[in-house]
Amino acid sequence: MTTTLTPSTGPETLTPPGLRLSADSVRAVSERRGDPAWVRELRARGWEAWEDIPYPTLATEGWRRSDLRWVDLESVFTPAADAPRAAAAARLEDLPPALLDQLQRDFDGAALLIEQDGQPVYRSVQDEPAAQGVIFTDLHSALREHPDLVRRYFMRLVPPRWLPGEPSNAGKFEALNAALFDGGTFLYVPPDTTVALPMRSVFWAGSPQLGFFPRSLIVVDRGARLVYVDEYRSAQGAAGGPLTFGSGVVEVFVGDGARLDYVSSQEWSGTTGGFLTARCALGNDAYVNWVLVGLGGQYSRTTADVVLQGKGTKADLLGLAFGEGTQVFDVHTLQDHDSAFTDTDQLYKTALRDRARVAYEGLIDIRKGSYGSNGYQANKNLLLDDTAKAESLPMLKISDNDVRCTHSSSVGPVEPEHVYYLMSRGLPRPLAERVLIQGFFEPVIERIKVPELRDRIRAVVDRKIGDR
After folding, report:
1. How confident is the model at residue 86 (pLDDT cuts 50, 70, 90)?
2. Per-residue confidence band for 8, with pLDDT thresholds at 50, 70 and 90
3. For the chain, how big is the Rg over CA atoms in Å?
4. Which end is more exposed in the chain, N or C (fewer Cβ atoms within 10 Å of the end residue's Cβ)?
5. Distances (CA, A) of 2 to 90, 91, 123, 131
């Protein structure tokens, strides 16, 4: 193996008084990163969109279940010029203890990139993927070393200003990321290349006063195969203080005939809140198996879109969240059928205890010309306490004939009949309920292609179940 070192706004407010977030902050990030002119232009367009797009309120479509009064940019955002640079480590053992405590190390992978507050602190790539021409590095190094390749895809799926036809409020926090992106992964797999072992990125927000704005670009070219794990973690902040804030963006391209198994795992600390947006575009006969995992954070808004641009394309979009305490998960999915004979299958499951809450909105959009397509959408929610709450809004938009679309949702406690059945077989009630909750999540967990990660998620779910 080779190792290479390499912001409080109320819902009616656009920018709070005295906020250090400004166009100067955007320029400071760009200067520190040494951006080329075309990237500076993208950042400027992102900042312009951030200022123009109305701040979401509880009366805004798509945000009616999102109370953003917790956002406190003034308290947590530090201009980039003041941000400390993290030192690169030759060994995992040299990384900060707080990071190591959260890092899963029993992981058999082909490559690992770890970033702390936007700075790469560790990178390792095995010889085989490097010899195959696989490029795996931090985004800012890729902008310098592979500018033509990056420019071909960068900010094409999640542009600085949201796509035409979207609601006027769409893309607010994506625009902020476009302006301030600081850190992220660039991963390119050449045509007809199979990466035998998983590749993995870990983004750790280690300084609560800093905003985190990673932006990643993943390209799996024609006929290639890849398993990729995207992890988001953060340090514990002061109790009662403002939440660590950030907005992350991922753009994923899967070429003709290519296959991607993708896991996005969010395990922020309880003093973190933020936004994660990912869009995946697929070519002809391409396939993505995408698993979303939400286990951490005080507030987490996840947007996951699959855009089926090629004929014969298939996407499986699965997810799970387990909330406890007063955690809030705000989940939005889009199955965008933009070509004929495309298939999507979406399953999102949550379990909630204490006063935790989930708000789910999902849309299957069958566009004109997408005949012969199939779309399925399911959202299942377990309420483990009467104080927990789940809101589910599955939606269909169909603009062509000869298609099949169905959706379903459910909210309720563990089925008493199922508990009784297991108790009749000798299991005490607490164990019977534990087994049913674990089994509830298993159809999602088993789709993760990394055994070590499956075991970790099962362990976290078991801890969250607690003593019932």
Report:
1. low
2. very low
3. 21
4. N
5. 11, 12, 9, 11
Kindly state the tokens that stand for 11: 């819902």
What per-residue string of b and e applies to 31-62 under the rule 16 or more CB within 10 Å gives b? ebbebeeebbebbbbbbbbbeebebbbeebee
Rounded to the nearest integer, the mean pLDDT of the chain is 89
The amino acid present at 140, given as its one-letter code, is: H
Please write the tens of the pLDDT for every residue from 197-252.
Answer: 999 999 999 887 778 999 999 999 999 999 999 999 999 988 877 788 889 999 99
Strands (E), 71-197: 111-116, 119-125, 135-138, 185-189
Chain centre to alpha carbon of residue 365: 21
Type of residue found at 298: Q
Instruction: Single out the residue of 264, 251, 298 nearest to residue 76, CA to CA.
Output: 298
pLDDT tens digit sequence for 208-218 = 777 899 999 99
Q: What end-to-end distance do the CA atoms of the chain give, in Å? A: 46
Query: Are 282 and 337 contacting, i.e. CB atoms less than 8 angstroms apart?
Result: no
Lowest mean pLDDT among 20-34, 120-134, 428-442: 20-34
Q: CB of 344 within 8 A of CB of 376?
A: yes
Give the 3-state secondary structure percentages of the chain, helix then strand then coil, rounded to 5: 25, 35, 40
Contacts of 354 (CB under 8 A, 6+ apart): 323, 324, 325, 326, 385, 387, 388
